[in-house]
Each structure stands twice: as C-alpha cells, then as structure tokens.
Amino acid sequence: MIKKLLLLLTLLIVLVAALGWGGYQMHQEKMSAQLPIEQPRQLHVDAGTWFRKFAQQLSDEGLIDSPLWLRLEARLNPSVTAIKAGEYQIEPGMSVRDLLDRVVAGETISYSFTLVEGMTFKQLRQRLLADDRLEHTLDALDEKALLKELNSDLPALEGLFLAETYQFERGTSDVDLLQRAYADLQEVLAEAWESRKPELPYDTAYEALIMASIIEKETGVPRERPQIAGVFVRRLERGMRLQTDPTVIYGMGDRYQGNITRADLRRPTPWNTYVINGLPPTPIALVGREAIEAAMNPAPGKALYFVAKGDGTHQFSNTLREHNNAVRRYQLSRRSDYRSSPEE
C-alpha cells in the first residue's frame, strides 16, 4: 500500500513538474513571440496606468492574445511592472518582451522642434500653437505672464529664446519648450559676454543680444556675420546711426507688406535705426549661437557700409563714396526704391 502511495505521489510530482515546465515554456514562447503587426505603429500609455490595465490594453489592441501571460511575467519578474507613461514606437519583428522592455525603460518617441534664426516671437508662437504634439498652455498667457513664467525681468519676449533644435516627447507643454530655449539662451549669452572683446559699445549682455538679432536679420551667408557685426560696432563707436532696414521692418509690424518706402524710413518707431541713435530697445528676432558670437567678437576692419549683391553676400565699403558706387552697381538697376543698409 505504501509503495503504491509513493508511486502515485511520484507520478503526481512528475506530472506537476511536467505541467509547470510546459507552462513555463509556453510562457517563454508567448513572451518571445513577434508582435502581430506588419507596419510600424504607436502605442500610447497614459499616465497612472497600472500594469494590469497595461496588459489588458495590449490584449484589447490585438498585440497579445491574452493579458494572463504578462501578469505571469510580472509574478516571475516584478520589476517589469515599473512601466512608464508616454508614446512608444512599435516595429514589425519586435517581440512582446522587446515591447515590455521598451516601456519599462521609458524609451518614448522623441520629436524635434526647431526655433529658426531670424524668426520673430509672433511667428514662433504661431508655430508652437499649430503643433498638435505639444500641450498648448501658451494661449492663456500674455507677454507679462510669460515673462513671469520664465522668471525674467527683461522688457520683452522678443529674442529671448535660443534658435536651436529641441527634442521633446508628445504632451510636453509649449511653455516647457520655451523655458528650455530661454535657459539655453541665457547660458550661451552669459558665456559669450564673459569672453567678449574688450571695449565694445554695449553696456549689458542684453544690448549685445539686441545687436546679435540685427546681425542675424542682415546675414545671408553665415561667414559674413563677424564682418557685419564689425560694421555695426564701428558705426556705434563713431556715433553713426545703424540705418538698417530690418529694424524699420520690425517697427512697421503688420503694416509691412514686402517693401519699404522713403516714408517708412522717416516714420519714427522705437526700432527705426534710421531715426533713432544707438540700438533699438529690444531684439528684433531669434538668434543662434553664431550671431551672439559675432556680436561679442566682431571682425576688425575699416568698413562702415555694406550693400547686398543679390546672391546672399554683401559688398563692404570703407567710405560713403565707395558705398554709393556699390549701391549703383548692385542695386539701383534692380530696384528703383532700394534703400541700402546701412547708409550715411
């Protein structure tokens, strides 16, 4: 009798072990199975999603045949329950375990947003609000409120964000993106200010930023930034007005329709450098690192004037006579209403 019981117990143990091993093997096969997709797709995991709900979500979306296999995986390996919210890319050939590893690691899809050199804040704001990958909180903030969000005591938002490409995840707020761009601008500006050439005609780093924005708008070919900066710096040092068209255009606002007239050049605005002495009160556009560097380290020389050649480059002149000759050569034959920048 005892022998029979021992035999039955042994058989039972073997059977349980066999079933357990078989179940384990089946579980491993399920976790190693490729996802049933033929095209890349996205998976959205909401914030606060529990692992059990996540397993059910994968089943509901047809990515696994039963949530039980993921729940078993959680019992065998509790660390897999630490899933991260976000948007994930799923590719054909990925296994269930590959997907789980990606969600646990938080390897979400990264998007990019580029702040373009020369863009105004109004244009930047429109682009941010049109991007449906971002959470839109900017619409509720006026200039004063946004400056407070940035913890900035500067007078205006214009030019306060570094022109650069920023990576972000879906659901990032537009204000968060601006805060990063503002912090980057402050860091780059502070470093450049510390290493600037001595005796530049700027009292503050903000004035150098204003100059950088003018350089940015006047530059068609990147290598000319230091030369253009040199012209403007020498004009400031001599008490000459900058007389640069982009400042006129900025001051015109929505009145600018693609051309400027003699009346526009004479019309006073805080930014019209044909009318005001020195720098305008704020930047006129976003700037990149190179424009800031040019403003802080302008090229040496004697040129006080430049005129566009029509191919993106400029002709630089030391005297008004040379400049007027360059204007006749490069511009008057093309535009009867041309206003060179800068001029006497």
Average pLDDT score: 89
User: What is the overall silhouette?
Assistant: elongated
- List SSEs in N-to-C order: HEHHEHEHHEHHHHHHEEH
What is the domain tally? 3
The major beta sheet can be summarized as: 2 strands, antiparallel
- Total count of strands: 6
Distance from N terminus to C terminus (CA atoms, Å) equals: 119 Å
In angstroms, what is the radius of gyration?
Answer: 32 Å
Question: How much strand content do the residues show?
Answer: 5-15%
Helix content: 40-55%
Number of helices: 13
- Strands of the biggest beta sheet: in what spatial order? 1-2
What kind of assembly state do the chains in view correspond to? single chain
Function: Functions as a peptidoglycan terminase that cleaves nascent peptidoglycan strands endolytically to terminate their elongation.
Keywords: Cell inner membrane, Cell membrane, Cell wall biogenesis/degradation, Lyase, Membrane, Transmembrane, Transmembrane helix
GO biological process, one term: cell wall organization
Organism: Marinobacterium stanieri
Task: Report a brief summary of the structure.
46% of the residues lie in helices and 8% in strands.
